[in-house]
Amino acid sequence: MRSSQWFDLQNRTSGIDLTATLSGTGAATAKLYPNGQIIIDAAAAEAAKTITLTTPYGFDIIDAHVINGAATAVTVTVKNNATAITDAMTPAAGADLVVARAGTIDDAQVAFAVDDDDLVIAVGNAALTGRVVLNVIFN
Fold first, then answer.
1. Between the CA of residue 82 and those of 4, 79, 90, 109, 120, what are the distances in Å?
2. Which domains does the chain have, with CATH numbers?
3. What is the rounded distance in angstroms from the CA atom of residue 1 to the CA atom of residue 55?
4. Which residues are CB-contacts of 112 (< 8 A; sequence separation ≥ 6)?
5. Of 6, 79, 98, 126, which has the fewest beta carbons less than 10 angstroms from its beta carbon?
6. pLDDT in tens, 93-132
7. Stated pTM of the model
């Protein structure tokens, strides 16, 4: 990361909007925060589809979890293009906001360069209404 990018990121009071593109129906927004978190909020993101993010900074993913806000259990996997980074995270039905954490992270897939567009959130068996949180370290 160039020093000008680091300065810009550290001097923000709110997150940086990331481009989130859905392959199906629903809605999603994503923000990158100076504390090293990417937060993706999804509303009825279609099952068996993806949310793809463009990343303005280089980073490595070091942790991930899903907070399910829907009445149906959902499966979510974080990917680097088509290759899984995490195992399938499956929070149960969750009007009470159930959390599931990644049990595994493939360290060969965690790195993303500036302006990559291959950070993919794969939605599995049911529509995703909730939040995906990625903890990252900048590189």
1. 32, 6, 19, 10, 8
2. 3-138 (2.60.120)
3. 12
4. 55, 58, 59, 60, 61, 80, 118, 119
5. 6
6. 866 678 999 999 999 999 999 999 999 999 999 999 999 9
7. 0.91
